[in-house]
Amino acid sequence: MSARPVWDILEESWTVTVGDVEAVALSRSRALAAASGWCSQPLPILVAQSIRLVVSELVTNALRHAGEAGPITVTIWLTPHKNLAVLVKDGSPEPPILSQPYDDGTAGRGLAVVAAETISWSWRAENRGGKTVSATIALPGSATARRATPASQQALTS
Ligand SMILES: Nc1ncnc2c1ncn2[C@@H]1O[C@H](COP(=O)(O)OP(=O)(O)OP(=O)(O)O)[C@@H](O)[C@H]1O
Ligand SMILES: [Mg+2]
Q1: Could you say which of 15, 61, 107, 128 is the most buried, measured as most Cβ atoms within 10 Å of its Cβ?
Q2: Does any ligand 1 atom lie closer than 6 A to the CB of residue 61?
Q3: What confidence tier does 154 reach under pLDDT thresholds 50, 70, 90?
Q4: From the CA of 101, which ligand is nearest?
């Protein structure tokens, strides 16, 4: 339950319980607090918002679509490129399916939000059953964040 430095890797992990009405909110704030501590500079509002959205959507999906299939574990870690990786493991073999959300649809937007807010997202089946859905968010100062800065802003800030 605590931040644990492993060589130069920072990682934090916790379990989420089905029926815990605070699970999503707690995961959101925990991820945000860890990322704030790990990042070498203050988190911009938009990055903080991305972290909130991505953690909310992935944890909600695990609870809603795989909640009956076994334990759910959330792991966050600072990647070698200094981005934030969010991994949510659940017990269901069913894959997450990114679809084109319709304006009048009532569901199917969560993964579209995750895709829009992250450098990349993916999922993999686990050998012992279940799967892990993961997403990587660019943190300020990382090489990815610098590359993602629009050329117009680079000209202004360099
Ligand atoms: N962890 C998961 N386990 C099993 N299926 C999943 C999981 N996450 C997503 N899915 C599948 O992928 C679909 C798309 O997920 P997405 O988050 O985009 O939409 P949603 O959860 O149905 O609705 P919304 O997120 O807009 O409330 C889901 O309807 C579900 O079929
Ligand atoms: Mg969803």
Answers
A1: 61
A2: yes
A3: very low
A4: 1
